[in-house]
Amino acid sequence: MAPDRAVVLVVAAHPDDEVLGCGGTVARRAAAGDALHIGILGTGLTSRGDGRESGAAVRALQADARAVAGMLGAKSIVFGDLPDNRMDDRPLLEVVKQVEVWIAEVGPEVVYTHHAGDLNVDHRVTSLAVLTATRPLPASTVREVYAFEVPSSTEWAFGQAGPVFRPNVFEGIASTIDVKVQCLERYSGEIRAFPHPRSGEALRAISKRWGSVAGLPYAEAFELIRSVRT
Question: Which of 59, 72, 150, 178 is most exposed by smallest CB count within 10 Å?
């Protein structure tokens, strides 16, 4: 008998967060047969330059995200249009309702999203919105909720923006670390040179570090928010 396969939803604030936070894990899950879906709430552009994103720039970044979704093995990717680094200007209910729509559309059992203590305000809003949208009501399909770290946001908060990231779940990604780095490189406008945390070399070092914690060559780390067994 084939093992049960899960429906997995990643809810990220910006294009590239899905790669930085859980790219290796979801690529491995998709390769194993899980149905992977990605939702990205923000444009990822509006805080740059003069703050006025062009339609062409947004479309180009979304094209990168679609290509990355294919590399990860996702069945779908959808986009919101929330402004970059200003999600706290919108009523939280608006963000929650967007996440609820995506959950209703794909019926995930497993959800990955941001850590609540990140430096980036959009990450914190996304985290709270996902926790609200996935509250354990009787009809909810969601059984597991995980928070991931995003290099250059989670660690750069230094514990001052909210709770410290305390991972308690580690996923081995030795088979997909190259895919994770290649996906980040596909976001040509987002990748940085080492020693910036959003560099290929840093991603490998971070994955080795968490791997050493869990006795693995490479790993991604997560905080389990909730697990419901029936």
Answer: 59
